[in-house]
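Entry type: protein chain
Record version: 2
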Amino acid sequence: MRLKDKVAIVTGAGRGLGLGIAEKLAKEGAKVVIADVSPAADAVEKIQKNGGCASFFVANVANQEDVQNLVKYTVDTYGTLDIMVNNAGINRDGMLHKMSVENWQMVIDIDLTGTFYGTQEALKYMREKNEGRIINISSGSWLGNLGQGNYAAAKAGVVGLTKTAARESARKGITCNVICPGFIETDMTLKLKEVNDGAAWASMEQRIPMGYAGKPEDVGNMVAFLASDEASYITAEVVNVGGGMIV
């Protein structure tokens, strides 16, 4: 229970990776606000059945007012905000010479600008109390990846944004770190098992030195550590959680 009585927001936590992160934080004792673009009653119920404390707030992270209201709801409901996990993201893959402006902008708006809004609003509150943890979810794709020019640009932006936030906030007792998941089992990636009789999935696993895809809880474990007092002297770091896939 490293996070007992701490209050956390996890964006994009209605399912998949975000839900895995929220579940881990709740198991460690945190009160978790699950933010997503649609009601996440099932996610809240799952956490509560396991003895955790959770609620949900409907928010589009690409909308600044929604994010402002999310932070206000959290502080009004639980009295504080200790941990901000900016996880919400989408991908709209395509080769650069074929990519539509709409798909470029949509990914930038949610993956990068949404992370900016979440980081900014959390910092406004955390700087007043001289304490806090901001953990932003990037991706191994920030180093560049075929067919993901928009996603790679957004996730690289998340790294730069977080390092800047860390430098600006360190004297205020706030740590800001980035986690880069590798190939993780989520609703999105599991669709690859249906491509070419699973050949696409097998190809991805062959790129992982450990030989298998990670699970959301693998990322959740790192989030919980970085959110804890044990990581109080760690900031501005980029941590890969990918079984050796990200070099």
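Comment: The chain has one domain: 7-184+216-241.
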